[in-house]
Write a structure and sequence with these properties.
This protein is an alpha+beta fold. It has 3 helices and 11 strands; from the N terminus they run H-E-E-E-E-E-E-H-H-E-E-E-E-E. Helices cover 21% and strands 27% of the residues. The strands form 4 sheets. Strands 1-2-3-11 form a 4-stranded antiparallel sheet, with no helix packed on it. A 3-stranded antiparallel sheet has the order 7-8-9, sandwiched between helices. It has a two-stranded antiparallel ribbon with strand order 4-5. The relative contact order is 0.23.
């Protein structure tokens, strides 16, 4: 790795470290299951897919198998999603994903009754970070409560509503 890349990675790590501490227990009363495949965060004005992409919402349950996506495919999936009569879905920012983390729980740090999730509980954000190949997507790992750069496949849970931007990199 060259020195510039190392400096960029260190700067990114310094930016992401405080974000890992931001997510506190997400009180259940803050969320409303709207009954149509959407969970509304009444505090932030965000609406989340109840089920991970690839699963079907049926009778208040998520059925089927969640589908892992490459980062670009996850972003495209959210941009083309039509759910609950809405088409303005997007991949969440890392900060938005972190608002779902429930620090009062041990692994996974996610309320699985409210937002069912498949193991290993890693979900894509819209963020990227530099690496030796150029850039990789950033996923949030709900098992450990941390953000991780990844070039592989992860799950995606799309969001809509007012964007909570990630800090500049």
């Amino acid at each position: 790795m060259n020195a510039t890349l190392i400096l960029r990675l260190c700067a990114l790590a310094a930016l992401l470290a405080p974000l890992a501490l931001m997510a506190q227990a997400a009180p259940l009363e803050r969320y409303l299951d709207t009954g149509d495949g959407v969970v509304a965060d009444q505090s932030l004005g965000l609406e989340w897919m109840k089920c991970a992409a690839g699963q079907e919402f049926a009778g208040r349950l998520c059925r089927g198998t969640a589908r892992p996506f490459a980062w670009q495919d996850a972003v495209r999936h959210c941009e083309s999603l039509r759910l609950a009569g809405r088409s303005d879905w997007r991949a969440p920012s890392l900060r938005e994903l972190q608002t779902l983390a429930d620090r009062s729980r041990t692994a996974p740090r996610l309320n699985l009754d409210l937002l069912p999730a498949p193991y290993p509980y890693r979900f894509w954000s819209a963020a990227t970070q530099p690496d030796e190949r150029g850039a990789v997507g950033v996923a949030f790992n709900f098992m450990e409560g941390v953000a991780v750069g990844d070039a592989g496949a992860n799950f995606v849970r799309c969001v809509r509503g007012p964007a909570l931007a990630d800090p500049p990199r």
